[in-house]
Amino acid sequence: MSAATLADHAVAGPRAAETVVRLRDVVKTYGDVQALRGVSLDVTAGELVAVVGPSGSGKSTMLNTVGTLDRPTSGTVTIAGHDVGSMRDDDLSRLRAEHIGFVFQHFHLQAGATAAENVADGLLYAGVPRRARMERAVDALGRVGLEHRVGHRPPQLSGGEKQRVAIARAIVGDPTILLADEPTGALDTASGRKILGLLRELNDAGTTVLVITHDLALAASLPRQVRMRDGAVEDDSSTSDAGALADAIVGAGR
Ligand code: ADP
């Protein structure tokens, strides 16, 4: 699979430098547990962001909030220019269908359905007729290098192949933002690296990607790392880089 093939599918998405994710003071509580304690984050179109931090630090809750699966207890969430706080559930479903793709650690595929049928499910809420859904599913499987597996069912596929099917399902609707929650967590190291390579290719082709990972070496290889702890952003390499740059400029002017 060449980058050119993926680039052919790059969507006419938001303009470069447009903020596609904007969280402001987002708090999420579950009973007594404060999963998020005031998270603010901006992600620009075309970014590839690693989200790291200990278990229980709020990474999944943050990703689900960006994906509009979780509503915050307080604070504002703006996705592709839409303030989601004021949106009704059916409008949120439409926003998700248009802008968001999800990938999970354990794939969440239907074992009895073929790879193509699983991928076509990614268009169920996009109002695409069945035949067109299947055509686009086969096309998406080609984009993840699985054109030879369209008729296979998940039990006949390796872990890495299953995750490719899940990624194809996430991108079949050409989302603005791809959210991946530990997509390499259930894979061996080599398969995990290949999956990350695929996320990079999709990002090169224009998709904004947020990926939760426990693999710190892998996270360090990505352009931006957001580190969470106790429900807050403890460190964000993009802002710390900006801070370091500002320090350098101020220092040079002294
Ligand atoms: P991480 O992804 O970093 O492991 P999570 O976002 O899953 O962290 O969880 C953050 C905190 O919120 C944890 O203390 C977790 O137990 C709690 N939490 C997450 N989801 C729920 C839920 N649906 N109900 C109750 N508590 C939850």
CATH fold type: Rossmann fold
**Largest sheet, spatial ordering of strands:** 6-7-8-3-9-10
Ranges with pLDDT <50 over ≥5 residues? 1-5, 9-14
CATH class: Alpha Beta
Rg computed from alpha carbons, rounded to a whole number of angstroms? 18 Å
Helix content: 25-40%
Number of domains: 1
Mean pLDDT, nearest integer? Answer: 89
- Strand content bin: 15-25%
Structural class category: alpha/beta
User: How can the largest sheet be summarized?
Assistant: 6 strands, mixed
- The second-level CATH architecture is 3-Layer(aba) Sandwich
Q: What would you note in describing this structure?
A:
The chain has 254 residues and is of the alpha/beta class. It has one domain: Rossmann fold (3-Layer(aba) Sandwich). 38% of the residues lie in helices and 25% in strands. It contains nine helices and ten strands. The strands form two sheets. The chain has a six-stranded mixed sheet with strand order 6-7-8-3-9-10, sandwiched between helices. The protein has a four-stranded antiparallel sheet with strand order 2-1-4-5, with helices on one face. Helix 7 links the parallel strand 7 and strand 8. Helix 5 crosses helix 6 and helix 6 packs parallel to helix 7. It is globular. The termini are far apart. The N terminus is likely disordered.
